[in-house]
Amino acid sequence: MNHGFERPAGGDAQALVLIAEDEPEIVDILKAYLAREGIRAVWAADGRAALDMHLALKPDLMLLDVRMPCVDGWQVLSEVRARGQTPVIMVTAHDQDIDKLMALRIGADDYVVKPFNPAEVAARVRAVLRRTRRVDFESREVLRVGSLEIDLEAFRVAVVRDDASRHVLNLTLTEFRLLAHLARAPRRVFSRAELIAACLPEGEVLERTVDSHISKLRRKLEDVGVEGVPVSLRGVGYRLEETA
Which of 33, 110, 134, 163 sits 20 to 30 Å CA-CA off 200? Predict the structure, then answer.
């Protein structure tokens, strides 16, 4: 079966979404609604094909089902996240909070439960793409807070030491947005509601979802020697503070 390995014509300005889903009817509906938004889509019918196509096509975003043949969605998400920062929106019948939190811990950027409104899915895709593909036309902006160097245009975070050594962090898009937002005012405490509004505006998000993303971000910073950042203030929210 040809899953659409040839990247459709139309130029780089048009976004490409990889739909990893084993139900053709759902794929047809999603493709139609994405096309209305001017977004191209290709289809992978199983997890192995999704991983192969992700490497071959470098899509701008992935819509990913959990229950798929060959390799399930959790494994696909984990591998895609290990490769880089491709935004991933989970689309699944799993509607329990524990499933949503698992997806966010692994690195999903959003979570849509079946049965869904296809117009809402298309709107969420468009919102994520708008942020990830937006260019800062004023200037290339780099935020520096202590040892952290946050490149807002390249979506890259590095820890720079006094000896000039650099450690680039492999963050998800949501983790990057949270860190960058905190870095704009490193001594200010941001409430969870403020962080949701600024960094996760696509749909209904639980406040503990922010905690999950922050916890994952903190572990990645600790892995490169940055301890206790961001700082948690019980009952209030988070702040970045200076890093050593």
Answer: 33
